[in-house]
Write a structure and sequence with these properties.
The chain is α/β, with parallel strands linked by helices. It is 35% helix and 19% strand. It is globular.
Length: 515
């Protein structure tokens, strides 16, 4: 995915005026503009996890690496994902929120990450533990999940095997326009400032999150007082917060109740208990979950102490069960309603982390408050005051003083914050779905953007609201890539990955041979 905040509105001003304002470009117009044109059958934009998975499927489906270009600012596909993980306190040795079979380097899901970790172990206990965990997960054990380091190392190996690195074209892609006569032009601004137009039949967009999503009251505070030191987003660099708390002690407010908030709390409590510092953590909930909740007795989540618990971002049935089928069959408001029911802010119920919070509540250094924030203002020296809106207007707002505020409420921002997606909505016939994202077909073609015989596809979080729920997950990206690959096979661009090809290609994967 593209790094949030790295997709500023630059590049369009460098195009000749007639290209900027025309929605359909001709070969003659582009040639007259002076842009260098490169012909390439398939172009994927983003260069993150979504692009990597798409290239992997195409190579397995028989497409030569020389027929694919990945337009990206990333040197390796996990670059932005690793940055986001590190910012939210998930280092390479920590486990992420994905299951054993969601293997980005292996479209078949076997052997999974757990089996690989087991056979790489150097002790009997290390061999047995992952296998036992997978066999008994969510009954006797928490869900087994891989470390981010394991995921990245396996992607490196697969990238070498499929010659992914030869597909890279470094630079920032900021425009995709339909071509008169079919296909598309995608403009890439290279590091040296030169604009290059890639002329292709197929374009695949996997640009990730448009930017960071800040809480409105924190945006107002930062704009009004210019303080980005004491009020921070969990997905931006904020190591200074932990360093100062570890050195001086103090109070920190954490806002949010998802996986990122749980990781932030893990770091804060671990540092406090390791160093013995005088740190108080105030956890501010907008909505407080007291117990199991849901729309019916058969569709409920566990919850307690403000948290809603779920093993993964979405229920497992959304990737291959009844909920996947229901989302795929539904349309319009019915699908929107069901996606909102299935979605929501959740975190896994991990035993170690639960014990930490219990100690914090018992010892008094972890405190919880519930309410809507009225405003955030500076207090005394090095203090930020968070005022909560009272239920009774005649009552004075509750004021919470802290040295830092960490916003861990999420990543999502409007797709128009991304330069390329904004241009797409304006010039390429694309439109929004009911959740405000790109409207796509079941096979992830962007509706309204077709330039026969070419196709424009989009995957990832930019398409949430379509025919697949967990589009921003490992398995969701793989399902989307398979749908795109099958659609391309129907058009004769690649081969179908049927039983025979699948078995043959799995053996090539296992032996480390090129597709």
């Amino acid at each position: 995915m593209e790094a949030p905040g790295s997709t500023g509105r630059t590049g369009l001003a460098g195009l000749p005026g007639e290209l900027q304002h025309m929605s359909i470009w001709t070969d003659e117009l582009v040639a007259r503009s002076g842009l260098r044109v490169i012909d390439m059958p398939f172009v994927t934009v983003g260069g993150g996890l979504g692009s990597f998975v798409m290239v992997d499927y195409l190579r397995i489906a028989g497409v030569p690496a020389g027929h694919i270009r990945t337009l990206t600012v990333n040197d390796h596909p996990w670059q932005n994902y690793e940055y986001l993980l590190a910012s939210s306190q998930v280092t390479r040795d920590k486990r992420i929120r994905s299951d054993s079979s969601s293997t980005l380097d292996n479209i078949w899901g076997f052997p999974g990450y757990a089996i690989r970790e087991s056979f790489a172990a150097r002790s009997l206990r290390g061999f047995i533990a992952p296998l036992w965990n997978v066999l008994t997960e969510n009954v006797l054990c928490d869900y087994w999940t891989p470390t981010s380091g394991q995921v990245f190392r396996s992607m490196q190996r697969e990238g070498d095997r499929i010659d992914y690195w030869s597909t890279l074209a470094l630079g920032r892609a900021h425009v995709t326009r339909r071509r008169h006569g079919g296909g598309y032009f995608t403009v890439l601004t290279q590091a040296d400032g030169e604009d290059v137009a890639y002329r292709s039949s197929y374009v695949h967009l996997a640009v990730g999150y448009p930017g960071l999503a800040y809480l409105p009251d924190l945006v107002a505070y930062r704009h009004r007082f210019g303080d980005t030191h004491r009020v921070v987003n969990a997905y931006e660099p904020h190591e200074h917060v932990y360093e100062e708390l570890n050195r001086r002690g103090g109070t920190v407010i954490v806002r949010g109740a998802g996986i990122t908030a749980s990781q932030i709390l893990d770091r804060l409590i671990s540092d406090k208990e390791r160093l013995g510092t005088d740190v108080t953590i105030i956890h501010l909930f907008r909505t407080y979950v007291e117990g199991a909740h849901g729309p019916s007795r058969f569709l409920r989540r566990r919850g307690e102490y403000g948290w809603a618990y779920q093993g993964f971002n979405w229920p497992k049935s959304t990737w291959g069960g009844q909920d996947k089928n229901r989302v795929r069959r539904s349309e319009g408001e019915a699908r929107e309603k069901w996606l909102r029911t299935l979605g929501g802010t959740t975190t896994p119920r991990r035993k170690r982390w639960q014990r930490m919070l219990e100690r914090g509540r018992r010892q008094g250094f972890y405190r919880m408050h519930v309410g809507e924030v009225l405003e955030v203002v500076p207090g005394g020296l090095g203090v930020v005051v968070t005022r909560l809106k009272p239920d009774d207007p005649s009552v004075r707002p509750l004021e919470l003083e802290s040295n830092f505020v960490i916003d861990a409420t999420g990543l999502e921002a409007d797709i128009a914050e991304h330069t390329l997606l904004a241009d797409l909505l304006q010039h390429t016939g694309a439109r929004r779905n009911l959740l405000g994202r790109l409207d796509v077909e079941p096979h992830f073609e962007v509706r309204g953007s077709r330039a026969e015989p070419g196709r424009l596809y989009a995957v990832g979080v930019a398409t949430l609201g379509g025919y697949l729920a967990g589009v921003d997950t490992f398995l969701g990206l793989q399902i989307a890539a398979l749908e795109v690959c099958d659609d391309l096979a129907r058009q004769g661009f690649c081969k179908f990955i049927g039983v025979r090809r699948s078995i043959t290609q799995w053996w090539k994967w296992a032996l480390g041979r090129q597709p």
